[in-house]
Amino acid sequence: MKPFNPLTRRQFIATAAAIASTLAMPGITFASTSTVIKKDIPKSGEALPVIGMGTSRTFEGSNDQQLISTLKAVTQAFFDLGGGMIDSSPMYGSAQQILGQILAQISQNKSLFAATKVWTDGRQSGIEQMEQSRQLWGIERFDLMQIHNLVDWETHLQTLQQMKAEGRIRYIGITTSHGRYHDDLQSILRKHDFDFLQLSYNIANREVEQPLLSIAQDKGIAVIANRPYQRGSLCRKVKGMTLPDFAQEFDCSSWGQFFLKFVVSHPAVNCAIPATSKVHHMQDNMQAGRGRLPDARQRQQMIRYFESL
Questions:
Q1: Cα(203)–Cα(294) distance, rounded to whole angstroms?
Q2: Which of 21, 175, 269, 299 is 20 to 30 A from 289 (CA-CA)?
Q3: Phi, psi of 85, deg, nearest 5
């Protein structure tokens, strides 16, 4: 039997510092490697798991039973491992229809935080589209309704404010992707009140840190990060490479977890929504929402390491 090796003084200090930095993050629930990390939605204090699930591309397709069976297993794994937010949009083809079929068939989905978008012009068209989405999902109401890519945002904002006041939705959001409309979005966020902001953010695309993420923090707006893997390009870049040793400091055992932990460790980011059609990828994604998150020093170390590859 090997003798027990106690922590050296340096190791003890480093471990204690990592735990202390995680505990110090506002609105974050500290977790062991066996429990789910959650962050508080600023406007309500409601805790939300930091890893959600996107449906763009992965849930799009024909009404194929083999596809639905595969996605059913992926979605069940998401809930079994503590998932909450699922994000979709009318823009994603048949994604909402397929998602609704799956939600009706699986168990343990009481933790669902249902988020979709309105993506059309005109007040009545928006109302009809949102109601169609609700019926496709098969739910009583959405937790979050977002204005997709700023389409007719002034019209839809008035509708959503009324729906929220009536209890027909719980939160109001606005989205962008591909780096589009950032200047317009800054102006909108400064002048109007939103509960959520969704945008593209990952270790290779950090342009939203200033000023959009800063504005969100200042105004108490929860942030959802889409494209955390840059549509797979980040994973392709590191394929076959070994993780750096320092990744162990924040309980990271894969490159997927490395990229997700970077995203959700930003103080302004509440949730990342990677999309996958494979159960083992979902299992790996969800593991990123457990254990420790990198602190500010480790985040800079991650950036330097990734940029050196």
A1: 13
A2: 175
A3: -80, 130
Give the separation between CA 260 and CA 273, rounded to whole angstroms. Answer: 9
pTM listed for this prediction: 0.89
Asked whether the bond before 294 is cis by omega within 30 degrees of 0, the reply is no
Question: What averages of pLDDT result for each successive group of 10 residues across the chain (309 residues)?
Answer: 37 39 50 84 98 95 84 96 97 95 87 97 98 97 98 98 98 90 95 97 97 97 97 94 98 98 98 97 98 98 97
Provide the token pair at 266.
């930003």
Domain 37-308, what architecture? Alpha-Beta Barrel (3.20)
Helix (H) or strand (E) holding 231: none
Q: What's the CA gap between 295 and 161, in Å, rounded?
A: 36
Q: Is the C-alpha dihedral spanning 140, 144, 148, 152 positive or negative? A: positive
Distance between CA atoms of residues 307 and 302, nearest Å: 9
Strands (E), 176-231: 196-200, 222-226
3-state secondary structure of 308: helix
